[in-house]
Structures are given as C-alpha cells and as structure tokens.
Amino acid sequence: MGRAVAAIVAAAALVAAIAPHARxxxxxxxxxxxxxxxxxxxDTAARVLTLCEHGAAVASYPVAIGGNGAGKQREGDGKxxxxxxxxxxxxxxxxxxxFIPIAFPTAAQQKRGITGGAIGIHGPDRRLRALGRAAVTFxxxxxxxxxxxxxEMRSIARWVQARxxxxxxxxxxx
Length: 174
Hints:
Structural class: alpha+beta
Number of strands: 9
Helix content: 10-25%
Order of helices and strands: HHEEEEEEHEEHE
Strand content: 15-25%
CATH topology: L,D-transpeptidase catalytic domain-like
Radius of gyration: 15 Å
CATH class: Mainly Beta
Strand order of the largest sheet: 3-2-1-9-4
Low-confidence stretches: 4-28
Largest sheet: 5 strands, mixed
Mean pLDDT: 86
Number of domains: 1
Shape: globular
C-alpha cells in the first residue's frame, strides 16, 4: 500500500472514530423524495443518496462526494456536479466494482462552458473498501458519488437496472 493510501486510511479511521456518519434521520429520508417521482436524489450537504419510488424513499445510503465539494464547473476541479442528469446502465469497473454513468455535463451546461466527464455513482475504491463506512466520512472522489460497500452498490445497481428497463431514469444532485 502506497504512502498516500496509507495516510488516507489512517485519516479516515481517525475521522470515523470521532465523527458521526452522514446519515439522514427518518423524517429527512421520507421528505427527501416528496414530489420526486422515481429517481435517485443526492443531498451533497448531508452526503446521502436516496432511492425514490413514486415520491417515497425506498432506501438511503451515506456517500462520499468530490474532494473539493459540489458545484462542478470544469474537468479536474474535484467537485461533484449539481443538477438533474440521465443515468446510463450500470457496468463493471476494475477500480470501483460497479459504476453507473451520469450524463454530465448536459448540452445546456456544455454551451455555458462547463466541462467534465466520467462522472458516476460507484462503489468504494478498491484500495479503500476495507474501511467500510469510514470511506464515506470524507470527500475523496474526483467528482463522483461513492457508496461505502460493494453490497450497497450492487443493491443500487439492481434498483437502477430494474427501473431503466421500464423508462429512462434520472439523478438529481443538490
């Protein structure tokens, strides 16, 4: 394990030991999907991803976002984009287990000069997965939304695949 990864592991373990995990309270989970239809919502402030089915929350997961927060404007800024985007089919990833591509940037965003790509929802980095929930206590992605385990990611991927078979599916990142 390289020095940088070892430092991240040590820092995450320390943060996990002294800070509460980012979790929505029951009231927050149920109200997150009001008026949402069937889609995925990501609250970047609370660092929570919620699966919404016909306006009701069916599951919620703590997530890591970009190391530089939210509001992506350009490729390489380390931020997670904000807005509503189409979701593509889940696929295997050697780096993250499973990856669900997010259609960022939109055509309108591109016209405004926003750049970027390779943004998605994914499982833990293969080097960090032993950390479990500690892996989402800090922002470490380059702009993606990451869950803490392969089990969580497989559950999200199955949900996305089943809904995409019926109609297009979107994600709203706020």
